[in-house]
From TrEMBL:
Transmembrane residue ranges: 20-39, 59-83, 104-123, 129-148, 220-242
Keywords: Membrane, Transmembrane, Transmembrane helix, Transport
Protein family (similarity comment): Belongs to the binding-protein-dependent transport system permease family.
Lineage of source species: Bacteria, Thermotogati, Deinococcota, Deinococci, Deinococcales
Highest taxon of the lineage: Bacteria
Keyword Metal-binding listed: no
SUPFAM superfamilies in the record: MetI-like
Protein name as catalogued: ABC transporter
Signal peptide limits: none
Biological process terms in GO annotation: glycine betaine transport; transmembrane transport
Compartments where located: Cell membrane; Membrane
Record's GO cellular component terms: plasma membrane
Principal cellular location given in the protein's record: membrane
Amino acid sequence: MTAAAATAPARRASRAWGALVWPAALLLCVFTPLLPRLLAGLSAGTPPTTDTPLWRLTLSHLGLVLGAEVVVLLIGVPLAVYVTRPGRDALRQLAEALTGLGQTVPTIAVLALAVPALGFGTAPTLVGLIVYGLVPVVSNAVAGLMGVDRAVQDAARGMGMSAWQRLTRVELPLSLPVLLAGVRTSTVYNVGTATIGAALGASGLGEPIINGLSQQNTGLVMLGAVLSGLLALSLDALLGLVTPRD
């Protein structure tokens, strides 16, 4: 038995443990007064409270992140497929450069630029999340598709497969682990980025953070930050379960 085969059950157990523990911790903090009571010492002895129930803020936050990820996938994967076709090296470099701008520009600047066109609320926040989330997805999809063994592609071509069949039966399945790793990274990034949307009126776990800053209430800030962190860990663990390993 190889070392990799020997450690595979341990890795699977670790992923399953994470997918169980982090969501359970998130639910415990959202539906019970445990977390506010633990943070009371940071709020002058009073458990921090929010006008909107924590479960509703968490669902709003999750909706923002997942909605943005759907759009990111609808844009990022077809774009990566298109620019990785033979003879499109220049387009591939241009696409990677343009999507890379999403992480070179501060998120708050992207949101501020979107406000004049879209107003306040959810719309500019979604734009910021999409721009910010495209980078890992496009980069990983391009890397995965470009990393497919040339000999495997030649063998598929030799079997008489069309370009579409090679893409759907060979290239995309083989590049799936790298692509899903990008989706996982993009999702975790956007859980943190979505908290900034509260400054523009988008609901979510950024609300207690923004309100805590304006009220100089550290407990309220920590309430949003801890729940946001638990949500990111939960999504990362759950996505890790469906990410195939090489």
